[in-house]
């Protein structure tokens, strides 16, 4: 006998499972911050600061894990499933790849794509004296450089970073809440055409009067400020990517024509009536309205006129 | 009267919000992101740390200013505490976290009800219990259908044995109903699983039964050797062992031995590209079946 998947035993467990089920409109992605088996202070600082930018939709693992996402996917996929998260940042440090930061995302609990970055320099939030922004704010994101449209690795990096910091999907934003800016700038490429450094900077904003509707922005560096070198990149499998960007049918709402509602909730419909052919309409049957009766006197008139002419 | 002078003076009191860009900057306001493809001063980026950081800050300020200009000209709604800009839909394609939810497969009853156009009548969850003068759930914890003592006196049916326990019969009848429902749920689950795998429910059930039978045969001490044969019992295909003849071509023997030596010294994977035929066949079959199901 095939075993049915076990059902939730109580309402709380059921609610928990329903919350994990796929949804038509998804909630914000949760990010996982994992330390590898060996780490450096630089990579720890980087992880800590990225975590504080991602809060509260983030889970920070404070213990070391024997984890190498590029070599074996199983453990990161296991963590993703356990924590119901779809973004991950893994930090590690080795002689071959010093200060290694891996950013990636999963689709349906299996790795979609990831990018490995070497952190060449990290200035933490603590080192800057600027005030940090409030927790859970959405950032403005600025990408500078044509390389973000041309270089394949940087296109991937742009997509991952956008996903990482976009936060929950929103249809409106408080104009007071534009508190910080993340800018990512593509540095000049190397002599042999290899991808150049990528400068990741974060600033807090202050909005000042400008005499018009739009305010003037001033920035102050908040940290973390990272100089990143792109290392290995794992592009998504084509089939998986197709699946991942597929929109549910329910979201592609076809607008119904000719139906509108007013502010009071009343429904209005506009109806198109075919052309009215008045000549063919069946009217009351009266002798006087018969066709041949109209026609006859006209004919008579004509004949009398003719006669008059001939006279 | 010329007002332009006064206006200019008013404007000059503030710093400018205009940013000049050769190529217009692309926005994705739904994500609050902008993509600037204009030339970057590479000399500045290669310069000292301090010069680079001030250059980056200026670059970022201009980018942020462009975006703020866009965001502040979006249509707004006013709430009690703040002004909200209405964001347009996002334009960048970003992957989802999980695939779109699948529709729940219909049970046999639901299919039947649909054909017969039977509508589901909604019953209230709570029922009034007159005896206890309170509202109680129709079923579940403290539900009215859990009352085994109700009615507490049962009339013995005319044709029944007077010594039968009617209370026990009532309990068993209820248990029977619950079991029947569980069996139906199991059947619905199996049938829907078969459809999902692209098989006929009957075929899948047959296969399940046969594999269960084969397993149970091996569970006696003699591995089912002396068991009675069932009608239409599947024949178990074991692995057939093939042995090479004792006397054969010496070249072949030599090459075989060399292969073994190589495998020992260099490792399995490097020397031979062995394919497990059965495993490969299974993988192909699975792929075919899943393709069929997509159609």
From TrEMBL, chain A:
It comes from the Eukaryota. This is rRNA-binding ribosome biosynthesis protein rpf2. It comes from Coemansia aciculifera.
TrEMBL record, chain B:
GO terms for cellular component: nucleus. This is Ribosome biogenesis regulatory protein. The lineage of its organism: Eukaryota, Fungi, Fungi incertae sedis, Zoopagomycota, Kickxellomycotina. It comes from Coemansia pectinata. It is found in: Nucleus. Residues 264-295 are annotated as: Disordered. Its main location: nucleus. GO terms for biological process: ribosome biogenesis. It comes from the Eukaryota. Belongs to the RRS1 family.
């Amino acid at each position: 006998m095939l075993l049915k998947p076990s059902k939730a035993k109580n309402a709380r467990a059921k609610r928990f499972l329903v919350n994990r089920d796929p949804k038509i409109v998804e909630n914000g992605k949760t990010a996982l911050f994992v330390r590898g088996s060996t780490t450096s202070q630089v990579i720890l600082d980087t992880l800590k600061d990225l975590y504080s930018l991602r809060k509260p939709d983030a889970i920070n693992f404070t213990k070391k894990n024997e984890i190498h996402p590029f070599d074996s996917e199983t453990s990161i996929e296991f963590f993703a499933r356990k924590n119901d998260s779809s973004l991950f940042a893994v930090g590690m440090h080795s002689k071959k790849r010093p200060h290694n930061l891996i950013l990636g995302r999963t689709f349906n609990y299996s790795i979609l794509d990831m990018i490995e970055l070497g952190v060449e320099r990290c200035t933490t939030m603590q080192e800057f004296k600027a005030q940090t922004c409030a927790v859970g704010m959405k950032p403005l994101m600025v990408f500078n450089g044509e390389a973000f449209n041309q270089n394949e690795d940087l296109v991937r990096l742009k997509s991952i970073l956008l996903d990482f910091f976009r936060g929950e999907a929103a249809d409106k934003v408080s104009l007071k809440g534009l508190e910080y800016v993340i800018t990512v700038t593509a540095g000049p490429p190397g002599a042999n055409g290899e991808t150049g450094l990528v400068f990741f900077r974060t600033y807090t904003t202050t909005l000042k009067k400008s005499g018009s509707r739009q305010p003037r922005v001033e920035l102050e560096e908040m940290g973390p400020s990272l100089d990143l070198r792109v290392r290995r990149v794992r592009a998504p499998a084509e089939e998986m990517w197709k699946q991942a960007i597929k929109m549910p049918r329910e979201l592609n709402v076809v607008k119904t024509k000719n139906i509108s509602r007013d502010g009071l909730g009343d429904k209005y419909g506009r109806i198109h009536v075919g052309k009215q052919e008045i000549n063919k309409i069946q009217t009351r049957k009266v002798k006087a309205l018969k066709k041949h009766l109209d026609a006859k006197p006209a004919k008579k008139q004509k004949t009398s006129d003719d006669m008059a002419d001939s006279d | 009267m010329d007002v332009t002078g006064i206006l200019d003076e008013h404007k000059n009191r503030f710093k400018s919000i205009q940013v000049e860009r050769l190529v217009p900057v692309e926005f994705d306001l739904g994500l609050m992101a902008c993509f600037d493809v204009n030339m970057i001063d590479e000399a500045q980026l290669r310069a000292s740390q301090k010069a680079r950081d001030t250059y980056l800050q200026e670059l970022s300020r201009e980018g942020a200013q462009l975006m703020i200009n866009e965001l502040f000209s979006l249509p707004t709604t006013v709430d009690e505490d703040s002004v909200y800009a209405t964001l347009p839909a996002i334009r960048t394609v970003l992957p989802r976290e999980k695939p779109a939810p699948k529709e729940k497969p219909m049970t046999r009853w639901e299919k039947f009800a649909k054909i017969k156009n039977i509508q589901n009548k909604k019953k209230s969850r709570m029922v009034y219990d007159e005896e206890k003068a309170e509202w109680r759930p129709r079923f579940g914890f403290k539900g009215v259908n859990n009352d085994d003592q109700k009615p507490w006196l049962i009339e013995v049916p005319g044709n029944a044995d007077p010594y039968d326990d009617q209370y026990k019969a009532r309990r068993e009848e209820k248990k029977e109903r619950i079991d029947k429902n569980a069996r139906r749920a199991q059947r619905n689950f199996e049938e829907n699983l078969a459809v999902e795998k692209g098989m006929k429910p009957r075929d899948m059930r047959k296969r399940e039964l046969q594999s269960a039978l084969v397993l149970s045969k091996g569970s006696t001490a003699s591995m089912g050797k002396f068991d009675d044969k069932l009608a239409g019992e599947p024949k178990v295909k074991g692995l057939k062992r093939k042995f090479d003849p004792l006397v054969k071509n010496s070249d072949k023997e030599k090459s075989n031995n060399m292969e073994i030596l190589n495998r020992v010294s260099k490792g399995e994977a490097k020397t031979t590209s062995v394919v497990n035929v059965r495993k490969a066949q299974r993988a192909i079959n699975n792929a075919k079946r899943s393709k069929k199901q997509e159609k």
